[in-house]
Amino acid sequence: MHCLRTSPANLKDYFRKVARRKVNKDRTITLNGRLFEGPIPLIGKRVELLYHESEPENVEVKYQNQSFGMIRPVNLTLNYRVKRDKNNNPQIHVHNHTPSYRGGKLWSSKRRNQDER
Structure pTM? Predict the structure, then answer.
């Protein structure tokens, strides 16, 4: 028996499972109890996730038949440290208050004069 043509190199990819999910505001996607990071342009969009049950960490994300590549699992030890408000938006705290250098003096002469009065 002769084969008419050889099978494609990526034959296994034709038999992946498909799941449809929405990318959350914080870029996360849940699949089979695991949390994944989604691409930023897909926030709020319904996407297709293609995966094999035998390899649950290898998940490809597609939107409108365009592949956005493989997504990776969220590192839960780092993710729980990010503070979010009630709308699930991350809060980044930037401290703009930097004390000015006073040349080694604890108080300025103006303040010292006010305290002596």
Answer: 0.60
- pLDDT at 93 > cutoff 60: no
Indicate whether 94 belongs to any domain.
no
* Residue 113 scores a pLDDT above 70: no
pLDDT in tens, 38-63: 999 999 999 999 999 888 889 999 99
* 110, part of any domain: no
Count of domains for the chain: 1
Give the domain extent around 22. 11-77
47 contacts: CB under 8 Å, gap ≥ 6: 20, 21, 22, 23, 29, 38, 61, 62, 63, 68
Give the H/E segment covering residue 109: helix 109-116
> Could you tell me if 56 and 65 are in contact, meaning their C-beta atoms sit under 8 angstroms apart?
no
